[in-house]
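Structure tokens please, single chain.
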Amino acid sequence: MAIRHNRGVQRTAILVTAAALLALAAPAGTPARTVSCASSDSTTVRENSVARVYEAGDELIACSKRTGRHETLAGPQDQWREVRLRGHWAAFAHEFCLDALGDECGWGVDLVHVMRRETIVFGVDGLPGRVVLRRTGGVAWSADEGSAYAVYRREGRRARRLDRGRDVKAASLRLRGSTLEWRRGTERRTATLR
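Here you go.
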């Protein structure tokens, strides 16, 4: 005896089953959780799908769009520049002072994981130039050290100098994929950024 299948009945049964499963997965009256990184009187400096870095008053602040946590990266006494954001990693150059009078000041490059609130600060001899950042947390920067220019990259929790000289072109630092590029005189130099 042959059994005949009605395709219309099969489709209806599949749709009813799928709707019932969706109804069980999301209880009624429970809205989907949305996290806002909005802040009144703020200006976005960098933003992507998972994080936002913004200025509010005299502060530089990062916010994770997954948790909604806001973290102050630099305060009113600090100056910052070259802010970069890739995934949950933010990097920026900033001047900080160790005393309230501003007598003991220096520059650093900060690397911050916005979700984990992990921060690594690399001291910089001189004035930082360009900062480049990978989604993996790899960061590199150039610096004007007075008598020469230099290029550095992160290696773990330390900075490693890749090049230094009067003819290093600090503004030429670029990142293409995982390859750092810069110029020394007319020569193009490269290194890998992990």
